[in-house]
Amino acid sequence: MSTTLTHSWFMTMRHLRNLARQPWWIAITLVQPVIWLLLFGAVFKATADIPGFAADSYVDFLTPGIVVMTAAFAGGWAGMGVIEDLNRGVIDRFLVSPVRRPALITGRLVQLGIVSLIQSLIVIGLGLLIGARFPGGVVGLAVLVGCSALLGGSLGALSNGMALLARKEETVIAASNFVLLPLTFLSSAFMQRDLVPGWIQSVARYNPVEWTVQAGREALTVSPDWGLVLSRASLLAVLCAACTWLATRAFRSYQRSI
Amino acid sequence: MMPTGAAIEARDLTKTYGKEVRALDGLGFTVEAGTVFGLLGPNGAGKSTTVKILTTLSRPDSGQASVAGVDVLASPDRVRWAIGLVAQRSGVDLEGTGRENLTLQGQVYGLRGTELRTRVGELLERFGLAEAADRVARGYSGGMQRRLDIAMGLIHRPRVLFLDEPTTGLDPEVRADMWAEIAHLSGNEGLTILLTTHYLEEADRLAGRLAIVDRGRVVAEGSPNELKGELRGDAIQVELGDPQADGQASAALDRVPGVWEVTVEGRSLRARTENGSAAVPAVLQALEAGGIRVASVTIARPSLDDVYLRHTGRSLTRTEEHL
User: Fold this and answer.
1) Is the pLDDT of residue B73 over 90?
2) N or C: where does chain B have the smaller number of CB atoms within 10 Å of the terminal CB?
């Protein structure tokens, strides 16, 4: 176990270092959620005027949604890095070494989590700047960011696993495109739950994006229902662990196919 | 598989991809410790598949293999500590520097602290990468990336090193440097090297013993000289004026005494004879009598390509050209 942790850290360092060498990638990654926040905030501003909309301003409501969405998208696209490593033979080199298989996945997920954390802080900071208020304070924000990281980790692990099975950039792109937007809109990221059609409410119950949004928003209220927060956070933790396990198993399928 | 004194032992390996492609069809060979063993054959003959299986990356459908005395199928984890791999398509992380690549590789094998730093510095020096050590590998030349690959394969002082097509895609000059490097490696520390290649000259120069691989099987095995020695006499190669398909050319030569093993591929005719220069007039005469135009004639001592031709019915040089 401790070897797996050490190996994960070595891999995390590798991924972080490689990221740090791509200034354009960093710029785009950091600016994108800002654009989402400003854009969605402007387009859906009138939402706050809908009768029955509980939040005082739409920015209060939207900011946690954008944090979650950002984490989900970063996770969904994570498989692209695996494809690159596969094409360059880097994965094969590690697979014939004594490196622990889970570390090849968790190293990527930890890097993803660190990037997500930075993105979240930027979105939250900007939200505060344009007038969003979070009564739940620092604890609430920590829950939001933590749950988002678990969501990003789950989708990231799935994306990595799929990349190992499909081994094609096109497949990862198609699958991410196919899944990410619907997953985001089949949740209350942008719209209060009791204001969307009943079927979406039903579907959302099984949507991990919705679990994350629920946990985050609840933790940010004046007096959170911690039972609800805990139940959603636990679901996300279990999901993340299961997806990581699946992604690690995908190495076997990959090795069987070559 | 029973462990033996051999560094590598492969027996009856078979592997099929999908339903159609039979990559290995009962391949087997033995490599003595401390030697350089070559697997020679064209692309698709099964060389890389063999390396993937022996390095624990892939598994055969059937058969047995052991590396450094450890059963590859039963204990892949133990095999991984004993081997180094320089894969055909490299494994260098192009976004990392040479030093970072080597350091991570060392960390994976449990090297830490001063020991790791010393070993990394030593390898960078030895492979002429010291100056470029802190530059990102994307900017390295093909030869530098290849040397970094070899350095990474050696970081944990493996007992068996696999070199899968180590000079494919390199410039001829760089290839010669790489040959010197590999020849140098083989003399060291009792290292066993398995080399795969489709370059005859490479196999001839580097391998103490080699196996000629064709369609997933070993068709001949021995030292380069033994293999060439099996061929009696000289090789005659005739470039014909026109491609031959109907066997007219070989039929014409069948009547010439002292000439055997006549094969024709496209415009190239090959035959063997006891004494090359003495046979040329008769060969030319026979071809002329058959109405076949001749562009040029060459006589040579048997080469590995002749060995390859004899065992597979095709010329390796030609096979490569057609790919």
Assistant:
1) yes
2) C
Side chain identity, residue B88: Q
Q: Taking Cα atoms as reference points, which of A39, A37, A221 lies closest to residue A124? A: A37
> Is the pLDDT confidence value at B2 over 60?
no
Ordered domains of chain B (ranges, CATH): 8-92+140-228 (3.40.50.300), 232-301 (3.30.70.2470)
Q: Which residues of B touch A104 (CB under 8 A)?
A: none
CB contact under 8 A, A17 and B100: yes
Contact B55 A94 (CB under 8 A): no
Q: Please write the tens of the pLDDT for every residue from B245-296.
A: 667 888 888 878 888 888 888 888 888 888 878 888 888 888 888 888 888 8
Q: Chain A residues contacting B, CB < 8 Å?
A: 7, 10, 14, 17-18, 21-22, 85, 88-90, 92-99, 255-256, 258
Of B106, B46, B59, B55, the residue nearest B84 (C-alpha): B55
ipTM of this model? Answer: 0.91
Are the beta carbons of A92 and B80 separated by less than 8 Å? no
DSSP string, chain A: -HHHHHHHHHHHHHHHHHHHT-HHHHHHHHHHHHHHHHHHHHHTGGGGGSTT--SSSHHHHHHHHHHHHHHHHHHHTTHHHHHHHHHTTHHHHHHTTT--HHHHHHHHHHHHHHHHHHHHHHHHHHHHHTT---TTHHHHHHHHHHHHHHHHHHHHHHHHHHHHHH--HHHHHHHHHHHHHHHHHTTTSSS-GGGS-HHHHHHHTT-HHHHHHHHHHHHTSSS--HHHHHHHHHHHHHHHHHHHHHHHHHHHHHHHH-
Percentage, residues of chain B above pLDDT 90: 54
> For B31-40, B56-65, B130-139, B255-264, which range has the lowest pLDDT when averaged over its residues?
B255-264
For residue A166, give how far its alpha carbon lies from the nearest alpha carbon of chain B (Å): 15
From A10, which residue of chain B is nearest by alpha-carbon distance? B104
- Whether residue A63 is predicted with pLDDT greater than 70 in this model: the reply is yes
Rounded distance between C-alpha atoms, residue B36 and residue B206, angstroms: 7
CB contact under 8 A, B136 and A256: no
Interface of B with A (CB under 8 A): 52, 55-59, 77, 80-81, 83, 85, 87-96, 100, 104-105, 107-110, 136, 152
State the average pLDDT over residues B209-227.
92
Query: Quick one: tokens of A56?
Result: 């005082």
pLDDT band at A20 (very low <50, low <70, confident <90, very high): very high
Mutate to test the interface with A, among B17, B24, B56, B58 (most CBs of A within 10 A): B58
